[in-house]
Write a structure and sequence with these properties.
It is a single chain. This protein has 386 residues and is of the alpha/beta class. The protein has helices spanning 38-44, 57-73, 92-104, 119-131, 145-151, 189-206, 208-222, 226-246, 261-270, 278-295, 301-313, 326-334, 362-380, and strands at 3-7, 13-19, 26-31, 50-55, 77-82, 112-117, 137-142, 156-161, 164-171, 176-180, 343-351, 354-361. The protein is globular, with a radius of gyration of 21 Å. It starts with a strand and ends in a 6-residue tail after the last helix. Residues 1-5 have low confidence and may be disordered. The structure holds nicotinamide-adenine-dinucleotide and zinc ion. The site of nicotinamide-adenine-dinucleotide has 27 residues, from helix 2, helix 4 and helix 5.
């Protein structure tokens, strides 16, 4: 794991985080304006001149020209492949349409597939690269905060099935990741904030200094300040790279990254994936996990307060919505693919920057929720009315 600072095209700082996975190691370049370095970087690596850029219409309209110009200027002939925008299109039909275009363009095994977009494009583009001709080179150019700090790092690729999210996929590492923080300036604010939930997650479970930094730099982050975002993206990539380097295929430790996700996923399922963005649901899940850690004495109340405060300051939701009842939450957690015998491996907080696993039954989680709600109703009721 190493970080090198050098000059980037706009004279701002560029950082390199290496994901160390033996023969499958790769660099993540992080900086402002660096999507325009894609051509020279692929040339340096000796990539074949015909390559594919998978994206969606929203991202293509904003950035395809700059990416394609850089590629063409360095002698590449990119084929632009668009899939429709939206999580509902992270499916087999879109994957099949990518295969059709790759075959029509007669790309061979030496080809490179560039995934230019958010996590949806990254996941499906990654799976296309993993499977087309049994695997072609993959380059991730993540354009959302979620994709830069999470989806593009670690090699998980997937599509959804009617029966659930990410049920079909593969572990497939990219050759290189180009995270240009300048492109985050065009993200809808809600998407940026949703990504910040995952950022806060890394700080809570892995890095107390980073949590301090977020407490002071949150306003600039919410303003999409490139310098602050560069620091955020590089710290998160370094933290995730370290976890992935330790446990590439999630046989154990990598599950620490599921902090806030057990309850978060359940909320997404129970609201049909249309009320909350993923990060928003994770924010609720993180606060839930924090309250639970406090209730069980794993962490002190001051720690819990700091976590809740930061999540609230980011204007992320913190409460399980009242129309989800505790029983429904428990059974939704019971069908989560990461459960075994009704108990979940739940990530709890010990202190800022330190977490631990506890096996907790869905029923116990429901009981806490019922208890907290009762306490809240009690404290909200007017007193002394006799
Ligand atoms: N593989 C992993 O490890 C991993 C990790 C986290 C999330 N994911 C997956 O990622 C997906 C969510 O990713 P996401 O949050 O990036 O959503 P997304 O890909 O749907 O992007 C969100 C929206 O922002 C738009 N967009 C992208 N970049 C933009 C830009 N620079 N400016 C303006 N608009 C832009 C997109 O077109 C889309 O409408 C989910 O499918 C999730 O399962 C995967
Ligand atoms: Zn997540």
């Amino acid at each position: 794991l190493e970080s090198v600072v050098s000059g980037s095209p706009r004279g701002t700082t560029e950082e390199v985080v290496r994901v160390e996975l033996g023969a499958r190691s790769y660099p993540i370049y992080i900086g402002a304006g660096i999507i325009e370095t894609i051509g020279p970087r692929l040339r340096e690596r000796g990539a074949a001149s015909r390559l594919a850029v998978v994206t969606n219409p929203t991202v293509a309209q904003l950035y395809a020209d700059r990416v394609c110009r850089s590629l063409e200027e360095t002698g590449f002939t990119p084929v632009l492949i668009e899939i429709p925008d939206g999580e509902e299109h992270k499916n087999l039909a879109s994957l099949a349409s990518i295969y059709d275009r790759l075959i029509a363009a007669q790309l061979d095994r030496g080809a490179t597939l560039v995934a230019l977009g958010g996590g949806v494009v990254g996941d499906i583009g990654g799976l296309a690269a993993a499977t087309f001709l049994r695997g072609v080179s993959l380059v991730q150019v993540p354009t959302t905060l979620v994709a830069q700090v999470d989806a593009s790092v670690g090699g998980k690729t997937a599509i959804n099935h009617q029966a659930g999210k990410n049920l079909i996929g593969a572990f497939y590492q990219p050759r290189m990741v180009l995270a240009d923080v300048e492109v985050l300036g065009s993200l809808p604010h809600r998407e940026l904030v949703s990504g910040l939930a995952e950022v806060i997650k890394y700080a809570i479970i892995l890095d107390a200094d980073f949590f301090d930094f977020l407490e002071s730099a949150l306003p600039q982050a919410l303003d999409a300040d490139p310098e602050v975002l560069r620091r955020i993206v590089s710290v998160c990539c370094r933290l995730k790279a370290a976890v992935v380097g330790e446990d590439e295929t999630e046989s154990g430790y990598r599950a620490v990254l599921n902090f806030g996700h057990t309850v978060g996923h359940a909320i997404e399922v129970l609201t049909d994936y249309n009320r909350y963005l993923h990060g928003e649901a994770v924010a609720v899940g993180m606060v839930f996990a924090t309250l639970l850690s406090e209730a069980r004495g794993y962490c002190d109340p001051a720690t819990g307060d700091r976590i809740r405060r930061l999540v609230e300051r980011a204007r992320l939701p913190v409460e399980v919505p009242r129309d989800i009842d505790a029983g429904a939450l428990a059974s939704a957690i019971g069908v989560d693919k990461k459960t075994r015998d009704g108990a979940v491996k739940f990530v709890c907080v010990e202190a800022i920057g330190r977490s631990r696993f506890e096996r907790i039954e869905g029923r116990a989680l429901a009981a806490y929720l019922t208890m907290w709600r009762a306490q809240e109703t009690e404290s909200a009721e007017p007193r002394g009315t006799e």
